[in-house]
Design brief:
Blueprint: H1 19-47, H2 57-64, H3 75-81, H4 103-117, H5 124-135, H6 138-155, H7 160-165, E1 168-169, E2 184-187, E3 190-193, H8 195-204, H9 224-231, H10 241-267, H11 273-279, H12 282-296, H13 303-308, H14 311-333, H15 336-433
Length: 434
């Protein structure tokens, strides 16, 4: 891949290294590029709006500053009231734990899909369609009632007494809401929810040391003391200080090592100084500014949201700087033959990436968009139904008010009529007496 040509200058460069060393550096640079791409994939699944390939400015503001103007929420309430199309993670939503992530719901959806399609084996789309249908039926309303009961418990301060007694009494206004019978008890005092049993079967089955999900097992919720931090209302919906500190540590330690090495490799190439001097440290400097903005975004509005909106810009600078460091360093390691091989590899990578986008990424994004649109349409339908019911109730009240005077008038007329009849009867009695 290279020939012992005379280096382009008298300054020592990477080209002076043996071929084996240069091949190792090339493999390292390529692996860094692949690793960065995998980080972008993770970023999409953790924080992007469904249908968007990368987080939008709105997503970034919500992550690092919090929802502007939104009332503060606890972690439990945020995860249970989030859109179900979001990722099933601690940064997305946990509603699915009451629906598609439960075995009995899956089996019911499977049976419903088989019954409607008359097929033994159904597709994922057919199961999801059956799930959407079930949510509009009693079983779906009962599952939603379970979520509402947990949220009400959290909003009520998540009392430990309710946890210990496995008995949370619903507010009177919510006493008649649909609930799965096995979790509900009714008596003269009202409707009670077996809150600990409900949380155990919907959440703790995964969030336990030996739970069904290895990832969720890292965040055990078997004891009330483990639940308490997640039930407390946060002043902001932004990423917690603990998680932000951990993320900062990982990025400064891990990514800075990579960016430092890629910058150092570029600095030792034969490229002109006007390229090497600004570009070699650029990824590191942009990374430090980027992480600084993560913390500064927590400032009060309008400063915090404004700084949060700059994070995608600094992130793009990091990505561009890293890409240039990798490409320019690769082409500086070899001469014409090695560079021809690199061009072929890059062309194959671009072609493969295009095919991946067309066959995998774009269909996935389109599916996410459709799921989000369906959820939004369903929410609009619910809002319209609620407004119609409210209008109907108001109209009924107005009719009752209008009917009240007529009723009073009718009662008065009946009274007058009765008095007249009484007088007539008395007159008849007087005549008989005469």
């Amino acid at each position: 891949m290279g020939t012992p040509d005379t280096p382009p200058s008298d300054r020592w460069t990477l080209y002076h290294l043996p071929l084996a060393a240069r091949l190792t550096l090339a493999a390292f640079l390529i692996s860094v590029g692949i690793r960065y791409f995998s980080a972008l994939v993770q970023l999409h699944f953790q924080h992007s709006t469904p249908g968007e390939i990368m987080p939008t400015k709105k997503n970034v503001v919500e992550i690092f500053h919090g929802r502007v103007g939104a009332p503060p929420q606890s972690t439990v309430e945020r995860l249970l009231t989030a859109d179900e199309s979001k990722p099933f993670t601690g940064a997305g939503q946990m509603r699915a734990a009451f629906f598609m992530k439960t075995e009995d719901w899956k089996e019911t959806c499977e049976e419903r899909a088989r019954s409607s399609t008359k097929k033994k084996k159904v597709t994922k789309e057919e199961r999801e369609r059956a799930s959407a249908e079930l949510k509009n039926e009693l079983i779906g309303k009962q599952r939603q009632g379970e979520i509402d009961a947990v949220v009400l418990w959290v909003k009520g301060g998540a009392p430990e007494s309710s946890w210990k007694a496995d008995k949370f009494t619903l507010p009177p206004d919510n006493a008649d809401m649909p609930l799965t019978p096995s979790y509900a008890q009714k008596d003269d005092e009202g409707t009670h929810v077996k809150i600990r049993t409900l949380l155990k079967e919907r959440c703790i089955r995964c969030h336990a040391k030996e739970g069904e999900d290895a990832g969720a097992a890292k965040y055990p919720l078997e004891e009330f003391t483990q639940w308490k931090p997640y039930t407390q209302v946060k002043a902001s919906s932004a990423m917690s200080i603990e998680k932000l500190s951990q993320t900062t540590h990982v990025h400064l330690l891990g990514f800075s090592m990579l960016y430092g090495l890629t910058g150092l490799i570029l600095a030792l190439t034969s490229l002109p100084a006007w390229i090497r001097l600004p570009l070699a440290p650029l990824a590191l400097v942009a990374q430090v500014i980027d992480i600084s903005l993560w913390w500064l975004a927590r400032l009060d509005a309008p400063t915090g949201p404004m700084l949060a909106e700059m994070i995608p810009v600094t992130g793009a600078i990091v990505a561009a700087a890293l890409g240039l460091q990798i490409l320019l360093s690769l082409f500086s390691l070899f001469r014409w033959f090695g560079n021809v091989v690199l061009v072929i590899l890059i062309a194959v990578a671009i072609g493969g990436g295009y095919g991946l986008y067309q066959r995998v990424i774009d269909p996935h994004l389109d599916k996410e968009r459709k799921a989000l649109e369906a959820t939004q349409a369903k929410d609009v339908k619910k809002d319209d139904k609620g407004k119609d019911q409210k209008k109907g109730g108001d109209a009924k009240k107005d009719n009752d008010k209008d009917a009240a005077p007529d009723k009073d008038k009718g009662d008065k007329n009946d009274g007058v009529k009765k008095d007249d009849d009484g007088k007539k009867d008395n007159d008849k009695g007087d005549k008989k007496g005469d």
